[in-house]
Specification:
Layout (H helix, E strand, L loop, with lengths): L2 H18 L4 E8 L2 E7 L3 H5 L4 H17 L7 E6 L2 H23 L3 E2 L5 H11 L5 E6 L6 E6 L1
Parallel strand pairs: 2-3
Antiparallel strand pairs: 1-2, 4-6, 5-6
């Protein structure tokens, strides 16, 4: 995806949020693995984030559908929507939780079950610990109570 397509995406996203009536500033940043990063700046982010990020997830899904149609891009792309760096802070926190839990598992030699998490949150845990050879991760249960278990290899 090139800068022209990135500009089309930004313009379509700005139009989308103007039509929603939500006062936001849209920032797009670099492309990685066909992913367009869109960060919104707003004074009242909680309304758009929702409980456990659920509203943010739904806005992202809706925005992607609108962008596919509006920007008329031929190349496939993914959207990573963030609001006031909520996802970034959440990701940093989850990575720390994953490392701490893995260290605890190694020390105690007992598996640890983390609380129920969204698919996004579980993915962060799995990716953070994927390079470690001393622990393994596994998701168990059914949505919305799906959890990650960390165990000794």
């Amino acid at each position: 995806m090139d800068q022209i397509n990135l500009k089309k995406i930004k313009e379509a996203a700005e139009e989308f949020f103007v039509k929603t009536g939500l006062p936001v500033e849209v920032e797009t940043s670099g492309l990685e693995d066909q992913t367009v990063y869109i960060n919104l700046k707003t004074e009242d982010p909680q309304i758009m984030i929702g409980e456990r990020g659920q509203t943010l997830t739904e806005i992202q899904r809706l925005l992607k559908a609108v962008l596919k149609k509006k920007a008329a891009l031929e190349a496939p792309f993914y959207i990573n929507l963030d609001i006031n760096d909520y996802k970034k802070r959440k990701t940093d926190y989850l990575k720390e939780v994953a490392r701490s839990a893995a260290d605890e598992v190694i020390l105690t030699r007992q598996e640890k079950q983390l609380p129920a998490m969204t698919a996004f949150e579980r993915r962060v845990i799995h990716l953070e610990l994927a390079s470690r050879e001393d622990v393994a991760t596994e998701s168990i249960g059914l949505e919305p109570e799906r959890k990650v278990i960390i165990k000794v290899c």
